[in-house]
Amino acid sequence: MRIVITGGCGFIGRRLALKLLEQGSLPNTSGGADEIESLVLFDIGEPTPPIPPDPRLTIVTGDICSATDIHNLIGSNTDVVYHFAAVVSSGAEADFDLGMHVNFDGARTILETCRKLETSPRFIFASSVAAFGGDMPSVIQDDTAKTPQTSYGSQKAMCELLVNDYTRKGFVDGRTLRLPTVVVRPGKPNKAASTWASSIIREPLQGEAAICPVREDQAMWCLSPRRVVDAFVRAAGLPGETIGANRAIGITGTTHTVREMLDALNCVAGKAVVDRVRFEPDADIQAIVSGWPTHFNPVRGAALDFVHDSSMVEIIEAFIEDELDGSFVS
Amino acid sequence: MRIVITGGCGFIGRRLALKLLEQGSLPNTSGGADEIESLVLFDIGEPTPPIPPDPRLTIVTGDICSATDIHNLIGSNTDVVYHFAAVVSSGAEADFDLGMHVNFDGARTILETCRKLETSPRFIFASSVAAFGGDMPSVIQDDTAKTPQTSYGSQKAMCELLVNDYTRKGFVDGRTLRLPTVVVRPGKPNKAASTWASSIIREPLQGEAAICPVREDQAMWCLSPRRVVDAFVRAAGLPGETIGANRAIGITGTTHTVREMLDALNCVAGKAVVDRVRFEPDADIQAIVSGWPTHFNPVRGAALDFVHDSSMVEIIEAFIEDELDGSFVS
Q1: The complex's ipTM?
Q2: Which of A139, A157, A330, B48 has its CB 3.0 to 4.6 Å from that of A146, i.e. a possible disulfide?
């Protein structure tokens, strides 16, 4: 089988690719699994660091908004497309046109290209809890209306509708996973308003100082990178009729406050590590983060056996194992 | 002030235009009203029957999908755009690409053109209860998630998100009205699965037979053309802060079963008129109509003082008055 991952050199795309190459197969919707013959990662640039060569692996660079690039990418033998390529929240907010072009038009171009194959390939899309916002209940239910307060969230919510309709029409076999905030992300702090949620774990474990700009009672709906990758593998094998007409699934996660995150860090790594975190309240960031939903009741995601982390301790231990080669600076 | 109505020669556009010319002004968001200097109706063809000439009125024919046509239509002195142009439900279902081009891309082109004015004009959009569907509660609440089961409904729901985001960014001052089924529509039966809801009133009152393809206990969420037009006038004058960040408003209506419709017809016009309706169950139509939501609790629409009809009798009497010159064939 042939799998294409857009945004394949990004954080999640890369991890999914490595996982797929390692396991050698992907679940199909008949209860079995198909051997992976070809895995294509599409992105705007080459992966850094490079991904070890593999005869099954191809890296293609191009523009997600170019119909020609996408046509060349998604050939008639494509069985599954994972669509991760996106401009992040802050980027889509700063440049509305760029966000619409990449996050909405890009997804539409890929859906159209899949449709033209006339084989209804599986199309697996990453949506976000940013699709929620505004006036919300204290706990987000599966049937809570989406009134996003960002362009990024609006574009994701529009794509969810598009994936559902393309699926209903038989153009693709879509499944959309609405992801919690991914914690702990590797790498460096970025401009995202949520960057502290990874920073306050990641930097102290490497002997560096970290700043927490929000209150210690601020909660966050979290899922580890390991569980996110597992969820995308699982999504490929769910029979469509099991998911139902609404192909957008709020997957399971866990809610942790800053205090709980730091308590778990203390438990795993000790007080000296936690002491590298300094609270520097930032009213702007606090205001943005306060607008995010923190508690969810994903009944469908749980019924579809998506698995969340058992604790913040598990999330931190997985990060140390996966990203720090099993050790940290105490 | 200058007002543009797309789909201005259609059923609702035409009625709104006549109403606006008659009253001579449109409410503004400061509690006053502005004199209408120019009213432009944009459509694919001339109105039939012709609209009586008026120095304030201009008819423009063109293509809603043509950026050039829309650019020429929406000049820098445009204060309010009513966007009604759409491919109807059955049309968007039969031709997916046409539906996307007209219902989604058309709305986006108009929003973009309004944005380029840099004056944040009022943009008033007609959405539909077809935005709901699939697994729904027995009563649709304002915060019920939209999982439409038609391409038309998906396109409307996507546009609702777009109007909200364009408003949040200050590109337009948007307000979206989610309309009940408009009953009684004038004219002839069409291919819409809801066409019977008008037919079973309209045809018998003109001495003609009508067929009802659904069960007599089938309910429908209804609003008369008169109230729809009133709602679009009212929408123009609501201050944005009164509406809130979610500019999509489910306006109020009333739920009536076929039996209740015919009882009201009997009350207004007598048994001989009702006897012109014949029940011919159509399983396909019944299946489509059974999937539509029938009961709503539009708390926001009611709080914003949108007015619904007081009874089915009132709806029928308004139809006789407005469309049949006050008389019917008994």
Answers
A1: 0.95
A2: A157
